[in-house]
Amino acid sequence: MKHYLGIDLGGTNIAVGVTDEKGGITEKYSAKTNAVQPFEGLVRDIAETAKKAVENAGLQLSNIAAVGLGTPSCINPRTNLLVNANNLNWQNVPLYDELKKYFDMPVFIQNDAACAALGEAVCGAAAEYDNAVMVTLGTGVGSGIIMNKRIFNGCDDMGAEIGHTKLVYNGLRCTCGQKGCFEADASATALINQARNAAENDPKSIMNELCGGDMSKMNAKIPFDAAKAGDASAKAVVEKYIDYLAAGLSSAIALFRPQAVIIGGGVSAEGDYLIKPLKKKLFDCTFSAEQIDIPEIVAARLGNDAGIIGAAMLCRA
Ligand SMILES: [Zn+2]
Fold first, then answer.
1. What spacing in Å lies between the alpha carbon of 248 and ligand 1's midpoint?
2. Sign of CA dihedral 305, 263, 219, 177
3. Of 49, 101, 127, 258, which has fewest CB within 10 angstroms of its CB?
């Protein structure tokens, strides 16, 4: 039995899992990310966190066959540098070379949203399918495309950015600097802004109550809770948000025709309340749905473990 290390490096936590060849987690350990230090210091922290996880699993680093790491960027194969991880203030850093100082074994680095998709495709919501697309609705819209149980990321690993496909010509400004990206209307951040606007325009909406009259306390759950309680403004917000989601996902389906679309992020906890109307809208706006139906639409199942498992599964030969 081979052991792999899966590392999910985020702006808040370094989460490490020791897994078996099939993605089963045998041990987990995590530490806070200290991004306010030189790059080399954070890589040392990663190595120490990983070492703890390995020791807790009753193993030694020499027992680990390979290491996979997911972070919000990719390695440019021409320069071998990690391109851009904003939340860590890393631009063109030699992450691969620095990690190799600590790990005398194969090391794989991938985009974290792609890792989450791979995790869900190997042992989560899309385990029974070979081809899946996952979107993670959070601060932005992360995405991963899985073909034959492998990550598809395009040339130089810089593609598969469903969140930055165009939804509205000349639309809202996106975090990437462009306008009208899918992410600008369909991220959890976008939903919060949409809910805020609706609450401000309708003082009687219970969304105002649910955030205690303080718009800075608005979150992505409030419009759903208010809509379930019958609030008309909240219902309109949720309906419009699902319209945006359906429009963006219909493009991804037309391009890749996955067997399943996985919805991740906090919003996916709404379950059927989100998925059922989304399926209906997708059926209405997706290419050839009348003839061949739409793919399965499923909520993510592995939560934060998806990133760890997917990173470890990068190590598969
Ligand atoms: Zn964008």
1. 13
2. positive
3. 101
| Spacing, Cα 198 to ligand 1 middle (Å) | 24
Secondary structure class of 224 (helix, strand, coil):
helix
Pairing of strands 64-71, 3-9: parallel
Tell me what pLDDT residue 250 has.
98
- Please give the distance, rounded to the nearest whole angstrom, from the Cα atom of residue 122 to the centre of ligand 1: 28
Question: How many angstroms is it from 213 CA to the middle of ligand 1?
Answer: 31
Asked if residue 203 and residue 66 are part of one domain, the reply reads no
Please tell me the total count of domains within the chain: 2
Same domain, 267 and 137: yes
Residues 169 and 263 in one domain: yes
What is the value of pTM for the model shown?
A: 0.94
Average pLDDT over residues 245-264: 98
CA of 174 to the centre of ligand 1 (A): 5
Say how many Å lie between the CA of residue 141 and the centre of ligand 1: 9
CA 119 – CA 125 distance, rounded (Å):
9
Return the CATH number at 8. 3.30.420.40
CA 178 / ligand 1 centre spacing (Å): 5
In the chain, % of residues over pLDDT 70: 100
Q: Which residues span the domain enclosing 22?
A: 3-122+305-313
Q: What is the pLDDT of residues 18-65, one digit of tens each?
A: 999 999 999 999 999 998 999 999 999 999 999 999 999 999 999 999
Beta bridge partners of 90: 85
CA of 159 to the centre of ligand 1 (A): 12
